[in-house]
Specification:
single chain; alpha/beta; D-Maltodextrin-Binding Protein, domain 2; 2 domains; six-stranded mixed beta sheet; three-stranded antiparallel beta sheet; 13 strands; disordered N terminus; ABC transporter substrate-binding protein; signal
């Protein structure tokens, strides 16, 4: 295995943050609303949410906050952009308050460790693809046998999700059946494919997936979200919204209000896409000067859908099945069961 890891986004500089209209407080980007306890002031409910640097949900949260979608519902909402290590400790490390964003791949470990958190809605669809060069003779995953495959972090949720799905649906294990795996940053993998060097295919993270979809030098050979939706009716999520069990028990109405605020935030983001992206797109790692990239993001928002605004038993069944598939193929140690998810009528 070859390793070339670097980080595309690094940190978000103060200059970029200010250009995007965000407020930098301490080590992250945070909202202006704060309170001393979970009940907040004037009977409001405090919710503090983390977002990862370069995360695509950042513009939605900040644009929604700017338009008071949570304040108007009695939610004392604050938001912080942070490094990935802190982001995934939202619940396990008590980094969030009330509710927050859970990654689909890290959530099972929280459950296994007894972290008192339940999932109550989708957040962002898994949009990553496996790419080859446009003129490649590779048509599907099975054609990668004996070839060189690139992946950004072999242990990542994205890579392991593709691996588990390909094993079951294509009889191909990217860890065992390729000639070599190159573990590299998405930036390095992108360049390797462009320059026809070292690798035959690659799975890259979200920002570079968007770049590749807008680049006619690349071709997708596998889109996990589409294939899983064909099977179950619902796309896998890269992140979902969760809440601490004590918050669910004490303030179920606030959990619903958070969800309703999120739905309004998504609707505002979609209907005012250019304005929201102009203000906060830099924080999502987007190149605002790249018209093709911006058009691809807008297409994903509308068609994927990138940020789903519905939730029900079908969603839960699809995610339980997804976790079972990951467990069967040793991508996770144990799969969360149905009791790790909440329907909205269970909150009423």
């Amino acid at each position: 295995m070859v390793s070339h890891n670097t980080n595309r986004f690094g940190g978000i500089t103060r200059r970029k943050a200010l250009q995007s209209g965000a407020v930098v407080i301490g080590g992250g980007v945070a909202g202006c609303l704060t309170s001393d306890d979970e009940n907040g002031e004037n009977g409001s409910h405090e919710v503090h949410v983390l977002g990862p640097e370069g995360g695509m949900t950042i513009p939605v949260f900040l644009y929604g906050q700017e338009n008071n979608v949570w304040l108007d519902r009695g939610i004392d909402f604050s938001f912080e952009v942070t490094g990935y290590g802190q982001f995934i400790r939202c619940f396990s490390g008590d980094q969030c308050t009330g509710a927050g964003v859970a990654t689909t791949f890290d959530f099972p470990q929280d459950v296994a460790d007894g972290v008192p958190v339940q999932i109550f809605s989708p957040s962002m669809t898994e949009i990553n693809h496996a790419f080859v060069r446009a003129d490649s003779d590779i048509e599907g995953p099975a054609d990668l046998e004996g070839r060189v495959m690139g992946a950004d972090q072999l242990s990542s949720g994205t890579t392991q999700s593709f691996r588990a799905y390909w094993i079951e649906e294509h009889g191909f294990d990217l860890m065992e059946d390729t000639d070599e795996i190159v573990d590299a940053s998405s930036a390095s993998l992108y360049d390797m494919l462009v320059e026809d060097e070292e690798i035959d295919a690659a799975i890259m993270f979200t920002g570079f997936t968007i770049d590749a979809l807008a680049d006619d030098r690349f071709r997708s050979i596998s889109y996990l979200a589409d294939e899983w939706t064909d099977q179950t009716g619902y796309p896998p999520q890269v992140t979902m919204h969760g809440a601490f069990e004590n918050f669910v028990t004490s303030s179920p109405d606030a959990v619903l209000s958070f969800w309703e605020g999120w739905v309004e935030a998504v609707e505002l983001f979609e209907s005012n896409f250019e304005d929201a992206i102009a203000q906060y797109g830099v924080l999502a790692g987007l190149d605002l000067e790249d018209d093709a990239e911006m058009a691809e993001v807008e297409r994903l928002v509308e068609e994927a859908p990138l940020f789903p605004t519905d939730w029900g038993e079908g969603w839960i069944d699809s995610h339980v099945e997804f976790y079972d598939m990951l467990e069967r193929n040793d991508a996770i140690d144990s799969a969360p069961g149905r009791d790790s998810f909440l329907l909205h009528d269970e909150l009423e």
